[in-house]
Amino acid sequence: MKIEAVDFFYLSMPEVTTEADGSQDALLVRVTAGSHVGWGECEAAPLPSIAAFVCPMSHGVCRPVGASILGQSLHAPEDIARMSAAVAYDSMDLLQAAHTMSGVEMALWDLLGNARGEPVWQLLGYGHSHSKIPYASVLFGDGPEATLASARKIRGDGFHAAKFGWGPIGRGSVEADRDQFVAAREGLGPDGILLVDVGQIFIEDVEHAAARLPALEAADATWLEEPFQAAAYASYGALVKRSAKVGLAGGEGAHNTHMARHLIDYGGVGYIQIDCGRIGGIGPAKWVADYAAPRGVTYVNHTFTSNLALSASLQPFAGLADHRICGYPVATKPVAQAFTRTRIARDSNGEVRAPEAPGLGIEIDPEGVRRYLLDVEIKVGGRVLYRTPAI
Amino acid sequence: MKIEAVDFFYLSMPEVTTEADGSQDALLVRVTAGSHVGWGECEAAPLPSIAAFVCPMSHGVCRPVGASILGQSLHAPEDIARMSAAVAYDSMDLLQAAHTMSGVEMALWDLLGNARGEPVWQLLGYGHSHSKIPYASVLFGDGPEATLASARKIRGDGFHAAKFGWGPIGRGSVEADRDQFVAAREGLGPDGILLVDVGQIFIEDVEHAAARLPALEAADATWLEEPFQAAAYASYGALVKRSAKVGLAGGEGAHNTHMARHLIDYGGVGYIQIDCGRIGGIGPAKWVADYAAPRGVTYVNHTFTSNLALSASLQPFAGLADHRICGYPVATKPVAQAFTRTRIARDSNGEVRAPEAPGLGIEIDPEGVRRYLLDVEIKVGGRVLYRTPAI
After folding, report:
1. Which of A54, A280, A325, A390 has the fewest other C-beta atoms within 10 Å?
2. Which residues 175-234 of B have a C-beta within 8 angstroms of A?
3. 0.95 surpassed by pTM
4. Where are the beta strands (DSSP E) in chain B?
């Protein structure tokens, strides 16, 4: 097969707000090779990501992502790795390239799996897709009451794990944050797995983060996620020594395997969270899973958007039976639900797993795509480099 | 002053080739506040960088760069730092943001310096702009003869230092590379400072890089630059132990201060090379200089393009008298020369320094900008988000 076309679809809610909800827009990628099609999704700013695929070359190692993909042959996983390596080298000076490639690479796996009639996790070398414990991923309420209600609802919906994130945490007092953690624990019940995500709010300030540790320990939080900037490894490494009970989690900001590795080696995280829509796709994410597992670090998917993204994010650790926790979006915006017909639902045990179907196993709903589609047109020097294609 | 407008100008040679010559296009940035104007330059892919300034918000921490700049007040260096921090947080999920911000931040310093009548290095707290030894930065020839001729010409032009980069190094045999190093040394003479840049060719493979160390030592190279990917700190750290004579240099790929710090702390580089057009601008670069100096690491600018980029890149270490080596582009494409009237020329000692004039001290030539200007138009959802402005 030869890659004949790579098409991008920029979907968005009519109104996008400043809340930390990444499901307000989406960048879908469709790759076509002969009679086969694959779909992927960039967890990234749509317009710059499209631009990074179609832009004119700046020089030999600042080429558009498209230059390493279009016209390439695809027959085996090695071909995908070859294209990823080409993007990494030939686009080394194009910062956005990794985010663009993430959705493209996902689509390449989907396409290859569809063509071969095999699920992606099988192409990755796994013999079985193990079930995972989904955690409901939601934002903290504005106050403890809202968080308590949200936690109770999650519990009522049958979840055994929940992640509360962002909101007012780190912006007010230690006591205010403690009240939030207490509320989340109370609503979730004593045996629920409680995860806390503070969205880089402490930048690199170890002491401000450490001040929250006693309250997190009292609430029996399993992990504290992203206390610092994605690359502030030294701060992670310092904070991890301050609690024997609460582990650190991070990695969603990794846009290459080095960054994930450094969070493990230098940052000491116990949970490495990879977003396949940012790290360059499924192949790099699998590399991280292979690196984490023998080191006693738990691999976790980072997913806050669609079921397409969720399927992609489950593949890299589908075969790791002991890596049980799984990010599971439950409060996404309609746009993130509209464009897939398939749902990865919880089974009778309340668990989820990567689909058994070929590729990523997710059927796209063209009508749903059209409903939220934003037309994009990019012209340079009078020439149209991109125009939203037909779906 | 209030930031009223930020305009981008995408300049390009009529034909762009795959050679590793970053001067084939340019992204100029003009910032306007009241009666004052400042200019900067992104060392980045122009189209995705423009897109990162004007794109619609995706969510609270994936906002366009413009959201943190337009309408902001600018009276002191602290205001620039505040805007940089806003971009780092509010655009944390927009990968290209750092490259976009780099040119904008440069322009903010230029504007502030122009308004105050002070050179930027003075605004940074330096009392004096020390002269530097410029190295002529050129590419290796296709074979040793071409490299020899190039080195002789550099010597004949009065340079005491030269950096040879990219070309065939690492793509063929160790012997072929040795012949190149020998040719460069021969042409440069025994007392010239020889620097070698291999453009990440060994990806993260320590042994392939180490195989070139004996030849580099024999040629008395001062540094080996970018043997590995920008974030492959562990490989840097392993290679640095293999030679007591040849230092490692790197950092041009750093798009935040963390990356530069990690190359020092984990990678053990002796020379930290910062491109102000990528790391987020002059402020972050100055932070790196402050971090490097007390640790015995030499700060070096990375500059391969215009005199505007050169002036910006000299500011962060203008006051560090002992940090003498300075990247100095000598073989740029016409586009990189056309848009500035000012030239940072070598003095009678063959040395260069950051200008004494206010701001960055570089006058833009609008006629030169127009000569290479590519019109860009970006439309999303029927709305024009960007159209090349008048110059």
Report:
1. A390
2. 199-200, 203-204, 229-234
3. yes
4. 5-12, 25-33, 36-42, 133-139, 161-165, 193-197, 221-225, 247-250, 271-274, 298-301, 325-329, 373-374, 376-380, 383-387
